[in-house]
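Entry:
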Amino acid sequence: MVRRVAVIGAGAAGLASVKCCLEEGLEPTCFESSEDIGGVWRYTDSRASRRVSVYHSVITNTSKEMSCFSDFPFPQDFPSYLSHGLVLEYFRMYARHFDLLRHVRFQTTVLSVRKRPDFLASGQWEVVTEAGGVRESHVFDAVMVCTGHYQEPYLPLASFPGIESRFKGQCLHSREYRDEQEFRGKRVLVIGIGNTGGDLSVELSRVAAKVFLSTRSNTWVLSRVSDHGFPRDMVGTTRFNHLLDWLLPAALTRRIKFRKFNSWFNHTNYGLASSKSSKFKMIINEELPFCLLSGTVVLKPNVKEFTESSVVFEDGTTEENIDVVLFATGYNFSFPFLEESVGSAIDDNRSLYKCIFPPQLEKPTLAIIGLIQLTGSIMVGSEMQARWVTGVFAGWNKLPPPSRMMAEVLKSKPAVKRNPSERENLKMSFIGYVDKIAACAGVKPSVLRLLLTDPQLALAIFFGPCSPYQYRLVGRGSWSGARAAILSQWQRTLKPLRTRVLADTSDSSSSWCWMCLLALPAALTAGLVFSK
């Protein structure tokens, strides 16, 4: 019987896990190595700390309505896309509202998590912590690891001949970047075109003499702003679109998406991506196309080698007088505190049952929360994981036997460990994954049932944004405010924009309702499909 639960980390996943434990009547103790909550979203100017934090100018890539905890919307006056300061403020509000901080032990580092000698019978873990130089041993019935995957900088120097032996300029990882001022007047090479590489290239272009952005990937660049000025994820992440992706051939789906992406600007002309590419990544960046168009950022292919002050690219071109090389190459995750038999078996999230449970354990009392990459908010996915896991711990939800879990994992487990850029290509569908975990937890909404009992809500759920509130309509942990939150999400999105009221006050957010009514037959068909 699980009662006492150790939660490691007080970031978004850790806070959600503490709350979910409390909802299930469990007794959580959260260990946080730093002095405050927030995880990577708590910005710091210091580079001395080993703690990873966002850079100063970061803005969320997912909107507030699609990123909030499922029973705690962001304040309606918060903008749709948020700075790190507003995200951290929201975490503080969440922690205060649900009285979570009294369960957090700050400046306490977890040194080891090991099975107790009687683990086969009890499923218990011995957790050794250190605070103020004092070590302490604890016994817990279960452990939730919420340290995420932004832990150890991935710096592939061996892949770039000459950078260690010949190059005389400065070399650093994006983890060390705070703002652009120290790069003023310098010629900078950014390696890696993920969201971070794109953001930093744009920011550096305002002060650097020249910025070169090197990539080996085909990359589609998207804007946060979608049709009619609404957030992209609210328009695109819908159950209707998810159904189309499932019904249509993959090649046709890709063709439709590529045509949509190219409607903003032709990616082939910019050297970013070709519609014939089978492997590609997508990043969010409104300013990068203009920087490329204006020449303040120059796109280059993969690096071949470095000399003392120059870089040679694989296409044979050379750029001279490079002052700084900035690696935006991502992070590796690690769990150094887990005993070797457990930690060494986790290559990536596909080594885990449903990306959560180590399948080889005789007792399912260890869960890894937040080790996922989704096409939507990881925060929402992490909360759903925590809800299911605490239901398992409390005895409400059941897991299959270890042999079945292991068999499922082996079907998808990678043959070799992948680097962060390759894991980027393993992003899972936001709706597909969260729905799967919600079904396990018994909280997935039924479109067909709602069509019969609450058609207005059913249409909003099917054609509107797949926002987190949908997962609080039914099952354990249902929230009485979920329906109202879903039906008012467009109004909350527009509220912070109403700082200058015009004579035409028609509510453009209601136009989607007419589309819903016209598409009612499609919704009925979809309900039948998903109910099978």
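The longest strand covers residues 109-115.
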